[in-house]
């Protein structure tokens, strides 16, 4: 049986993250390289957000474009993936960039969509 610090528990050994708070049951990488390589873009984003919810400062490890102007695109964006209030968002008007926003709605990073997916994949393999 796995029990999270928030009190949620499960007998299912395949579950890697607490279903209540989203924290991983282990601080070590619980995904294999093969599992990561077999994921689609949405799964890569979802797993990245799971880790960022627990380790908020890891967003700096992604080494994406810094935010130099805080603009609100909220009405022009749609969610690609979400976990624990963190989101990957893409413009509705078809631009090739995406952004990561935290649980407070602050844009933490943005960049070319495919480059960000590759950076997130590398982050998952090395975290």
- Helix count, per DSSP? 3
Task: Please identify the structural class as seen in this structure.
Answer: alpha+beta
Residues in helix, %: 25-40%
Q: What does the overall shape look like? A: globular
Low-pLDDT stretches are none
The number of E-state strands comes to 6
Strand order across the biggest sheet? 3-4-5-6
Rg is: 15 Å
What is the typical, i.e. mean, pLDDT? 81
User: How far do the termini sit from each other?
Assistant: 24 Å
- Main sheet, how many strands, which sense, barrel? 4 strands, antiparallel
Order of helices and strands: EEHHEEEEH
Fraction of residues in β-strands: 15-25%
Characterization of this structure:
The protein is an alpha+beta fold and 127 residues long. Helices cover 26% and strands 22% of the residues. It has 3 helices and 6 strands. It has helices at 33-37, 41-54, 113-126; strands at 2-3, 9-10, 77-83, 86-91, 97-101, 107-112. Strands 3-4-5-6 form a 4-stranded antiparallel β-sheet. A two-stranded antiparallel ribbon has the order 1-2. Helix 2 crosses helix 3 (113-126). It is globular. It starts with a strand and ends with a helix. The model has no long low-confidence stretch (mean pLDDT 81).
């Amino acid at each position: 049986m796995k029990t999270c610090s928030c009190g949620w528990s499960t007998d299912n050994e395949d579950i890697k993250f607490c279903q209540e708070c989203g924290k991983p049951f282990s601080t070590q990488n619980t995904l294999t390289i093969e599992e990561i390589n077999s994921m689609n873009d949405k799964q890569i984003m979802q797993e990245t957000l799971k880790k960022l919810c627990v380790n908020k400062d890891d967003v700096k490890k992604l080494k994406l474009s810094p935010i130099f102007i805080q603009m609100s695109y909220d009405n022009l964006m749609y969610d690609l993936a979400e976990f624990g209030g963190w989101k990957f968002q893409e413009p509705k008007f078809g631009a090739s960039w995406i952004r990561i926003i935290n649980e407070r709605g602050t844009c933490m990073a943005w960049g070319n969509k495919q480059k960000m997916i590759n950076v997130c994949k590398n982050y998952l393999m090395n975290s």
